[in-house]
Amino acid sequence: MQALMLLLWAGALLGPGSCQDNAGSLEDSPAPDTTGVPVEEEDPFFKVPVNKLAAAISNFGYDLYRVRSSLSPTANVLLSPLSVATALSALSLGAEQRTESTIHRALYYDLISNPDIHGTYKELLAAVTAPQKNFKSASRIIFERKLRIKSSFVAPLEKSYGTRPRILTGNSRLDLQEVNNWVQAQMKGKIARSTREIPSEISILLLGVAYFKGQWVTKFDPRKTSLEDFHLDEERTVRVPMMSDPKAILRYGLDSDLSCKIAQLPLTGSMSIIFFLPLKVTQNLTMIEESLTSEFIHDIDRELKTIQAVLTIPKLKLSYEGEVTKSLQEMKLQSLFDSPDFTKITGKPIKLTQVEHRGGFEWNEDGASTAPSTGLQPARLTFPLDYHLNQPFIFVLRDTDTGALLFIGKILDPRGI
């Protein structure tokens, strides 16, 4: 069981060596979601249908991230699981019971009682893509050429997910151009056009795209941004642009079980980024990754304490384009690629062939204000605290209003994916 150990005692922040003696264990979070532990019913936050749905698909997102990360142990990972979850949830509208259950279990729908999952999903998408969020997400289902699709599938798809399926022409150049045009329109030109050809043997292709450019509640002073060392490991360092704030107001905690320092920075639009920074550059990130669930992140959001710290953080501009097909196949979804039942879509046997993801993510010094909010009163510290993201770390972009996981990243080298 995870226990978030916050080092605040008698008005002073204590060093890591003191935590076992003086820091109390705060509320235990549930075990990792791989055990099938349901969302905490007693927490009023999760009683709101949109929040409960957000928790379910976010737990799918943490599962997907873990598999993706294990497949790329030495590379950066950037993922917007919501866009993939949306495509899968939309596809389930065309699935008969056996196949629908397979998708719903992966999305943790089997742990929530909601007679109108798809209607609630529409509310969630509207909430997290509101203009002030600076977050764009879209999904699309693409079918093989000459497929006859039932109108009884298209109508609810359009109603709940605001999208229509696309039928391939069979001309790979024209099909790629059409998909790129759709992505450009959805993402307002923020994601580069793909050069990856659409395979000719596609039966069902799912496409999820997302883009985020964060705006901090308190902006960084560009004059304080400079080239600093980022420690890739004990021996290797690279020089990257690091933003700094000697008097940053942030929310902080130290988890002694995970041996990491956790910080949360607020973004405009009721968004926040939570950082997980290992105490040692050589530390394996797997234990932190295994702890990530909607419930654990929600507990962190409640328990972190507001402090003032010397903060440095790399400027970040990352993009990803590729498949998450293999990751999904390892998440008990293999049957979708073998012999699924999509007879609600068409009378012809079809199956999932490929799942593509495109994502763009960036932050720089931009912020809404040059001064911290007067409503934030940091705890008094007996000595200055430093929080330097100058070594491999994990970040979670979370919508505060719904608790939805919007982006997650493993940053081993901030120079790029």
Domain count: 2
* Average of the residue pLDDT scores: 90
End-to-end gap: 33 Å
The second-level CATH architecture of the largest domain is 2-Layer Sandwich
What's the CATH superfamily of the largest domain, by name?
Antithrombin, subunit I, domain 2
Describe the sheet with the most strands: 9 strands, mixed
Tally the beta strands. Answer: 20
- Beta content comes to 25-35%
Low-confidence stretches: 7-33
CATH first level of the largest domain: Alpha Beta
In the CATH scheme, what's the topology name of the largest domain? Antithrombin, Chain I, domain 2
What gross morphology would you assign?
Answer: globular
SS class? alpha+beta
Give the helix level as a range of percent: 25-40%
Question: C-alpha Rg, in Å?
Answer: 22 Å
- Number of helical elements: 11
Domain Serpin: 62-414
Main location: secreted
Subcellular location: Secreted
Family: Belongs to the serpin family.
Short description:
This protein is an alpha+beta fold. The protein has helices at residues 19-22, 49-71, 81-91, 97-106, 117-128, 151-161, 172-186, 286-291, 294-303, 325-333, 335-338, and strands at 3-5, 8-9, 12-13, 25-28, 77-79, 135-143, 166-167, 204-213, 216-218, 226-231, 237-255, 260-267, 271-278, 305-314, 316-323, 352-363, 367-369, 386-388, 393-399, 405-411. The strands form five sheets. Strands 5, 10, 11, 12, 13, 14, 18, 19 and 20 form a nine-stranded mixed beta sheet that branches.
